[in-house]
Amino acid sequence: MSAMATIKINVKWGKENVPCEIKPNQTPDELFNDLQSKTGVPVARQKLMARGAWRGVLKSGMAMDLKDGQNVTLMGTADVLLKPKVETKFLEDMKEEDQAKSGLVLPAGFANLGNTCYMNSTLQCLRAVPELRDSLKQTQSQDLAGALNSTYAQLDASTKPVEPATFVATLRSAFPQFAQRGRGGGFAQQDAEELYSSLLATLASSLKDGDSNIVDKLFGLELEERLSCPECTEEPEVVRKDTARKLVCNIQGGTVGENVSHLFEGLKLGLVGSLEKRSQILGRDAVWTKTSSVAKLSPYLCVQYMRFFWKATPDSADHTGVKCKIMRPVSFTDTLDVFPYCNADLQKAIKANRDKFGERVDIKKTEDEPEEKKAKMDVEEPDEDLAAALALSMEDDSAVKNRELLESCGLDKDFQGHYELFAIVTHKGRSADGGHYMGWVKREDGSWLVFDDDLVSESSWEFVQGLKGGGDEHMSYLQFYRAKKGGI
């Protein structure tokens, strides 16, 4: 480039001409930034060509031999809204904390502090619940909630693996079972579900929200249990309520009863059981059948695949039994329909929304009809605000009850019973007291991240849906779902 004070060039971008002034020794990056501020075309999408000034498409580090009045062609689409005119920051120029928050690098993982993969994987999944994160940031406690908040803050600010030493120490102090050691003297492997349940129970005590707590507002379920006595049909049915923070997929693995091949079968089986209870008519204890349904949903659902069970060993020396793992494959999809597991009231509310959404689809089809056909219909175009107000005023008691029921669950008033899978804890290995846990978290763009302790990599749904079991590879143990909005 010649040593002039400034060189005026004309950048042709589509039908627009964008005048620019180039200073001596100006770099391509400076020109990219200037054009981004003037056109709204992000640097990453810019393609600049100029005959005789450089070869091909201009890239960082290339020399520019521009002449006064030269024409330059810019190709690239602008963002819908022009971003503020700020200088583009390059990754190598950012601080580590800024890199971690930029989303341009993979998030940090947790170092394994001695068989802590059960904890590392579960914490990475819970980290993907923004409402829980927001509540943790408000806590001033020095207990497990405070330690978890500090640990997440470390992850947010780091691109390197984080050692969750403070959280592990606090956890083992609060729950000594997580400090158990194996025969070799090292810390023993633990159950990820036990960590999930213990942690949420503690957070429920720490993260208060009015008369309730944030944990039960996000994960709390209410179950309607119906008890009947098969031995005595005259015994009246008992109806009672219970609470839970997860649903159970009962696999059974062919030991007794039905075999389960899909999640929806296991969830249905997990809501049926039996217990011993006194029969007033028989005057003795009897085995009662328990059938449960969900009376109150939540914005988030945790599903546990019941892969571990206790097997009696009467012929062994100590007769203590052994914990075994069911390897049976159980398939799942990326969307869970909870309608079959709900009680009558919830099913009524969900069905009403599904019916209403069907009507909206029909209306949408009418709107898409040709203009000449719509012209034959002597109907004024409705005002959306007026229509919403009119619909609200015309709600009958049943519609009001349905809406209030869903909103009391923390769900959208148009909720149709569908949840989206967004995180998984998997277990690999045949031993329940050994093996290895990993976390899988869905990103906003639909891709997935794999958290193998300190190693973080990318994956896809095509691979994730294969985590159904049936071999020695990783298989789903805990799954986390979030409610879908309205008719989506």
UniProtKB/TrEMBL annotation:
Residues 108-484 form the USP domain. The keyword Hydrolase applies. One of its GO terms (biological process) is protein deubiquitination. The keyword Hydrolase applies. Keywords: Hydrolase, Protease, Thiol protease, Ubl conjugation pathway. GO terms for molecular function: cysteine-type deubiquitinase activity; proteasome binding. Belongs to the peptidase C19 family. This is Ubiquitin carboxyl-terminal hydrolase.
